[in-house]
Amino acid sequence: HNRPVLTQHFSIYPNHMSEAPVSGFQPQGILMSKALLKQMIDANYPMVEYGKGVWLYDTEGRAYLDGSSGAMTANIGHGVPEIAQAVARQMEKISFSYRTQFTNAPAEELADRLAAIAPGDLDYAFFVNSGSEASEHAIRVVLHVWRERGQPGKQKILGRERSYHGMTMGALSMSGHDLRRKDYGSLLHAFPAVPPSYCYRCPWGKRPESCGMDCAEAWHEAIQSAGPENVAAIIVEPIVGAAGGVIMPTTGYLCRLREICDENNVLMILDEVITGMGRTGSWFAADWAEVVPDVLTFGKGLSAGYSPMAGLLLRAPLVESMRQNSGSAPFGHTFSNNPLSAAACLAVQDYMIQNNVLDNVQARGKELEDGLRALARKYSFMADVRGRGLLWGFEFVSDPATREPPVAAKAVAARFGELCFDKGLIVYPSGVPPLNNAILLSPPLTITADETATLLEILGSALDDFDAAGALAI
Ligand code: PMP
Predict the structure, then answer these.
(1) Which contiguous run of DSSP H or E holds residue 130?
(2) Segment 199-220 mean pLDDT
(3) I need a surface site. Which of 95, 185, 359, 443 has the fewest CB within 10 A?
(4) Whether this model's pTM surpasses 0.70
(5) Listed residue (306, 260, 319, 268) closest to 115, CA to CA
(6) Mean pLDDT value of segment 305-334
(7) 76-86: b (≥16 Cβ within 10 Å) or e
(8) 409-446: per-residue pLDDT in tens?
(9) Does any ligand 1 atom lie closer than 6 A to the CB of residue 274?
(10) Which of 131, 134, 119, 79 minimizes the C-alpha distance to 444?
């Protein structure tokens, strides 16, 4: 790709990550409305015009390699004609029907297909419009199930520090993300309870080979101190995404959580909003983790961004409890189980199967991993390359020996994100201050070998510039 070099500086990353001022430049000829409220109100976002595969193009003709799939969403890349055709066909039939009045064929089929590919007896599915709603729904479902089972006191949901489950109040209550929580004070419940499984910065100062998995045992203590009779469920992301830049759990961690939940009569919610639908090389992270949660939430990659859609899978015994008592699952929104979005999701799944996309995740994932490890050998400030499939992350350190993170106020990850953006590569800065120093890479699962090489090349050039500028200097 012959991409025009950017000479001006974009500032689209939220500067609430830091105290540092973020500069911008004045719009030049871009039709930007004054009315559309944007994340950074006065920043100048490029206007996207169209997308093709892993590339996005703005109205000024610049190309961007979508190295993060937006927010880990555009899993089959942009502008796939088969999806547009499937959505148009569905729209000609029926775009909207209301769930208490009708069911619809695309939603029925999507639920069947997900139940078929999900592990164990995750046999029931329900659809909402966003990952946050899926998290809210998970709360409603587990509280409902315990009410139906005659234990209405079980209302607490325990989560983890350094986690993210969505921006709505319930989802945020479960999220250990101080930055996003801080403005809502008493509106949020103080749910998060335990540190994550984070070997690079083990809170217990131990090593994975000999640690005894304190990070899992901490759950037992947290449930006991809250009182198991009060705890409805725990919630975890199998791999910490936006809040940590791909923090991989130690081997056996999720299985141990399953045991701890069973021992304490607590339900397990696995948030697969990022990891679900092929991102890590199998349909769900639950597959390789060999765990069957009671509730599994998904979103993002399900529709790959072609239409808003998310949802949750439930194990059969949960639905049995509802069936045998009230006989109802009384939750939903106007657009729940929406036929148009379901048709988009079915077409995305067809496309993934027909094009062996899961195999591509394995092959390209290995290339991305090798490339990142090679870069980390070159740049000592690039640490802890970690991930699986096409979900990878690393951290910046100001001292590799002590693993000292850069000063939070320097917003190193956000600045690196801007630098990459300027060079035509989109990466996802992540983390929670004071460790807001991670970069997440999650290109479309359809990326080719050549495009993976291009991604690594641009990333390498950004790291070079960062190095030359002494960006990590204390
Ligand atoms: N769970 C996880 C793990 C997420 O990463 C996100 C979004 N980044 C959500 C839930 C919330 O999804 P949404 O933004 O679609 O509401």
Answers:
(1) none
(2) 94
(3) 185
(4) yes
(5) 319
(6) 96
(7) bbbebeebeeb
(8) 999 999 999 999 999 999 999 999 899 999 999 999 99
(9) yes
(10) 79
